[in-house]
Amino acid sequence: MHILLADCQPKVRFALRVLLDRQPGLESVGEAVDAEGLLAKIETAHPDLVLLSWELPGLAEVGSISALRRVCSQQKVIVLSGRVGVRKEALAAGADAFVSKTDPPERLLDAISECGQAPKGRAVAEVSRALSGGVSAMV
């Protein structure tokens, strides 16, 4: 499964890339730091799934996820945020799943698997031990 990372924080993108690269069948195909870059990367990278920060700069200007859905209707979208309270809003806006940045890495991998039925390898346990804590603790 080809995954595009969209988050303005370099450390978060790095941690996500490390997590994904250790999973068989998952591949990071690009990164975006703002909504404009995200739209451009979707056109060139053709990801199967987008890991999208709810706080991505410019996201409000493009009309949130519903506007992105017009451009990336074929891709699954998992919203990431440190603010658990935006879960309902993200799902209502068209996200396929929501994962808090405080959730353990397994939760993100489960959401990816549910969205794309990508296989999860034994590396999950290794990454979990190495990066114990939430997704945000991976940085």
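Above is the first protein from milestone M3; the second protein from the same milestone is given next.
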Amino acid sequence: MGDNQIAGHLAETLRHAVAFHNADLTPGQRRLVEEGFRRGEILLLVATSTLSMGVNLPARNVVVLPFSWAGEMEASPEKRLLLPQEWSNRAGRAGRDAGAFGRAILPATSPKEVDLYRRHFFEGTPQRLPLHLSEREVLSGGPVFVLWGYETESDLSALLAAAPSGQARLRPSLDAPDWAAAARDSLARAAAAGLLRRRRDRYACTRLGRTVAELGLGLVEAEAITAFWKRLETVPPEGLLVFFACLLEPARQAVFPVEHSAQARQGYVEELRDWAGSSLEDVEEGLSERARWEERHEVAAKKALALRAWMAGEPGAALEERFHAPEGRFHELADTLAWLCQSCLSIGRTLGRDLEALDGLPTRARFGLPAELLGLLSYRVPGLGRAEFLQLWREGFSTPEDLAAAPRETLVSMLLPETAAALYEALAPLRRTTIAANEDLPGPDRLDVCGRPAGRRVVVLLNGRRVLHSLRSFELLVRIAWGRLHGHAWVARDKLGIPPQYVTQYLSRLRRELAAGQSPPGESLVEGDGTGRLRLRVAPGNLRMDADQLALAWPELHLPNDRSCPQLVDC
């Protein structure tokens, strides 16, 4: 259930068959509450409006309070009556199962309230739903509209006018005749930003525009990210990219609280400087000077450092104490920042940047795990979340091979029984590949580690079929192949010459790239022995590699010094 403060409160209420459900819970805690309610183990559930937005639970009696908060929580919000459709939606959660009894209860404290609620909720005319596009959505959506096939101003104008929101209006000050102008402005702004190109009366997405449309980015964010990459001459430090993503993410106190202590805010800024380096000025000109920092920069600095602690595997309780936010908010923030980091990297690659060193950042941001644990994500099963992965890590299990070698009883001692059973079953194929060190498996008929360049990729021939590798995973393949050719076969992970925090990431990528070249698909060509050692699942006689030739072609590779192996032949 986790180690955060809310987990303790939840455990206490569950002893009485009572639970609560809100945005402060982690995904695992929400799942636990929802499943417990479905099974009838939780008899009373207190929830925010999240459950009225699509989570089906078998409630027979639903008590709906008639008021909600209007405005942001940090800005002295006021209570207001629910709209009739809001009350109906929440009341409709009762009796969702087919044929089930359902009852909604609206509490009132006086006859006057009873009369007010009757007139407001049941006797009034239902409000018309305000279906309308915002001006920002229309003006930012040019690449998406073109990608959908609306390639001319007249096509887009007709689409906007025919949509249900268009039949109402774009905004109070824009009526029907302005749809043509809205379409023209949307396409023109996207073209000016380099997202579209125009040929006569038709528009088409540029490579950058297609990337932006597929990511679901708006025009403002796309322009900001593009400008960010144009200011940079080198690959940015990880901290700089995370800070930039935090600046793009809206500063909502209700989601992640602002630090009110000026001293604490200054501390966040100085810590960020250490992480992102002097290149902070590459985000916005002048940020290297303290006087140019505004509140939004300080909020972004706090979020960036919170994400760093989250990715480092800091426990939930420690995160809550340090950053004054429940762990559930970290999950929400991480989802948004992972998407923004991925968007930044995708646009950077489209602009021709080599960002391989930052490849694992979005995944680490999303799941809150150190780089060395990313290989475990391939074995996610229900009930195995961040807290459970970190528990495995603390017990010394950081790779799939480590887990595959563990007895079932060991997994049961660390995880819930059903989670341990599912994980043990998921690891079964990997256990079959962890073989004795002196046992030879046939593998492919031929693997040529040629190393011919193909753009920014490297060619390897698997049974004569081209397989493209990134330079990092190719370096890993060369080192494992070297060990195979020398006869001792197994290579310890700490002898690979690769920073430990990146080994799992590069290994997962290498396995995926080799698997793409296998026809028909087979077991992984890189196997482990359960103790952290790796071996290439290829007979030495079927492996071809010329280390001297590779050293000339790829001087940036750090190849082994000993090249006296008699089994090396030219490929």
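Note on the second protein: Residues 166-177, 435-441, 562-571 have pLDDT under 50 and may be disordered.
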